[in-house]
């Protein structure tokens, strides 16, 4: 009967800013604010981290060591919207890789596996933050992942992905490098 006492996660319409790395009042690399409406719905994952999962709204938020560590967005069920530096951008489960590149510019690294799944990596903050855009084989955009200390920050992962560019990527202002932001 424990399930009767769980708090029901409410339906939400989150706003994800891809330049500021925020989901409403949550920011990658920062603590969850004490007054955040998300806070009561985080649960321990058993490994010292906490997770907010709202499958009906297409979002999962992870924390590690008390800081917001990740946003995982499933586009087929995502009920929110996206902005880029506060300006609305249209990203949906029908968005193509070309359309995303028109919004953000070319990715820092592109991975295509033997099944033809594509993952575009956007690296910034000297490699400490990462955006991933995942396109299943013969499909449009399916998932967006925003990470603190992303996949490619790990030298073994860079080697596994065959990354040939120097690490870390460097940006002038230590923020995201989106050439299409004016």
SSE blueprint:
Elements: E1 15-17, E2 22-23, E3 26-27, E4 43-44, E5 50-54, E6 59-64, E7 67-74, E8 81-84, E9 87-89, H1 97-104, E10 109-112, E11 118-124, E12 129-135, E13 143-148, H2 155-161
Query: What is the total tally of β strands?
Result: 13
Q: What is the mean predicted local confidence, pLDDT?
A: 89
- State the order of secondary-structure elements, H for helix, E for strand: EEEEEEEEEHEEEEH
> How large, in whole angstroms, is the Cα Rg?
17 Å
First and last CA, distance: 55 Å
**Sequence stretches where pLDDT stays below 50 over 5 or more residues:** 1-5
> β content, as a range?
25-35%
Structure description:
- The model is unreliable at 1-5 (pLDDT under 50).
- This protein has helices at residues 97-104, 155-161, and strands spanning 15-17, 22-23, 26-27, 43-44, 50-54, 59-64, 67-74, 81-84, 87-89, 109-112, 118-124, 129-135, 143-148.
- The chain contains two helices and 13 strands.
- The strands form two sheets. Strands 4-5-6-7-13-12-11-10 form an eight-stranded antiparallel sheet, with no helix packed on it. It has a five-stranded mixed sheet with strand order 3-2-1-8-9, with no helix packed on it.
- A hairpin with a 2-residue loop joins β2 (22-23) and β3 (26-27).
- It is mostly beta strands.
- The longest helix is centred in the middle third of the chain and has 8 residues, at 97-104.
